[in-house]
Amino acid sequence: MNRVDGKTWRVIRVTQPGLALCLAVAASLAGAEPAPPEKPRTMTDVLAASKPSDWRPLDPANTLYLDIAAGRVVIELAPRYAPQHVANIKALVAEKYFDGIPFIRSHDNYVVQWGDPNGGDKEKAKPIRTAKRHLPAEFSRPIDKALPFTPLPDGDVYAPEVGWSDTFPVARDPEAGQTWLAHCYGTIGAGRDNAPDSGGGTELYVTIGHAPRHLDLNVTLVGRVVQGMELLSALPRGTAALGFYDKPEQYVPIKSLRLAADVPEAERTKLEILRTDTETFTALVETRRNRRDEWYLKPAGKVELCNVPLPVRAIGKAAQK
Amino acid sequence: MNRVDGKTWRVIRVTQPGLALCLAVAASLAGAEPAPPEKPRTMTDVLAASKPSDWRPLDPANTLYLDIAAGRVVIELAPRYAPQHVANIKALVAEKYFDGIPFIRSHDNYVVQWGDPNGGDKEKAKPIRTAKRHLPAEFSRPIDKALPFTPLPDGDVYAPEVGWSDTFPVARDPEAGQTWLAHCYGTIGAGRDNAPDSGGGTELYVTIGHAPRHLDLNVTLVGRVVQGMELLSALPRGTAALGFYDKPEQYVPIKSLRLAADVPEAERTKLEILRTDTETFTALVETRRNRRDEWYLKPAGKVELCNVPLPVRAIGKAAQK
């Protein structure tokens, strides 16, 4: 069966014929047996050689479990980038505001979104007890030495610099002294109306297509999906304008949205993510810049920020991707 | 109801406060009434002002209708980039090879793929009568003055130049004298095994996530989906390795795959696409580089190749996107 690519994790035979040739020529000049060519590492090799300290567990105080009929979606919040929105989402979660709130939108190659279908109607909107409905924008934050940053060397169409900060894909503008979370696949943002302070976290969207980076600096991003994206990205697309569902019977209700710290230990989904400030991650990025899996004939030599996977695994298990 | 962005197509009120301010200051200096600021155009405005000659109909000789239970997917082939593969796919379609062949793979943030589940088994593989099973690779082709090219000015992480050629997103390497179709959302490629000539068009994939541009120059691309992507992108994800479906009962069969030219006129889906060698398209790209819809607070100033939509409409109707 043909494959699009060789993503299977198996042993590489020969991937650098040029190098092998050079070694053969050198060996022939020296009259010796050619040394076996050094095998370039694939992502599988890099992950297999990772150390336990290359991984960090998700912090239960910043992890959400979004349960729908199809299963559980695990979300990691980014309090360093959107402290007020994250605190407000936790307050909404604590008062179980989101339980029963549905996915109301599935816009192809763009976003799925959940929120109160009556959110815009003061009379009918679901009441909020302790949390806030609106917050000032947190579109970017100052660059700070305390904030880790692993740069990607390949440039970016949208921002002067891109890379990762504590496993989150980020962009930076050193001249403006600002940094922000970048919209990649699975990023979660707070929907808003035209006013910058009209969001707050009661409506959240998840990107499901080609990274809509033009939304950067226009929306407060609050985190990203770490596991379960396939449950959201395959939701039937809405047929009304902007991918909203036409009829309430199409809504996909949230059974519950909980902070991991509030869930009994035995019911938690315990995951760890590859740290991005490690040599292992730098080696992984290199395997994505230059694919050496035997299927590839022409490595790209570069990689886009949003094409670098962030490996996640159950604690103590092999990496998922 | 909060929106992620202001994609609704409506009249813009004010979008350039900076410009408005400058005009007001200038007017105040001159002691005159301020002139109303010129409204920057949105994509809606640009499409509404398009001329009939800005559009070209799909050529029935290079258009496929892929019918599944959920509906029809309209595909445009790219014979200028993959002449042998396109001819072979037409031959396969002519002998109804694909009728009953299923989608066997739905890999999140990557591809859906159809093909003979027994394709790798010489005994069980579905027979091919006149077409070929394997073809030489057509990963790129020479740059040729006869080939139109509308460049995108914003650069690209993967290729020296990108832009559009007769509405297809393409990349180019002027030094190597080569050009190729770029993997964007909805691009269709011919799956292959490790050998470059192990594909041929019997298995085809469609990209459903962030553009996997690292596949460029590694696969023969044969065309793209023009309408109906949402029927493919929302297929349930496969749970076996690489997103293949675990069990045959999960397969999604193709009811029929036909060349538009072979379908009675009354049953055709008549579409036209915005030409990319027009001033209207250049203006549209500018509305994507700098979004002036009132929801946007900070236009990006640039745009990635794969974030520029290619508007399609039923002939004689308003544009779909």
From TrEMBL, chains A, B:
Residues spanning the membrane: none
Assigned EC number: 5.2.1.8
Signal peptide segment: 1-32
Annotated ranges, domain PPIase cyclophilin-type: 69-259
Pfam annotation, one family: Pro_isomerase
Keyword Acyltransferase: no
Keywords: Isomerase, Rotamase, Signal
Top-level enzyme category: isomerase
Molecular-function annotations in GO: isomerase activity
Protein name (database record): peptidylprolyl isomerase
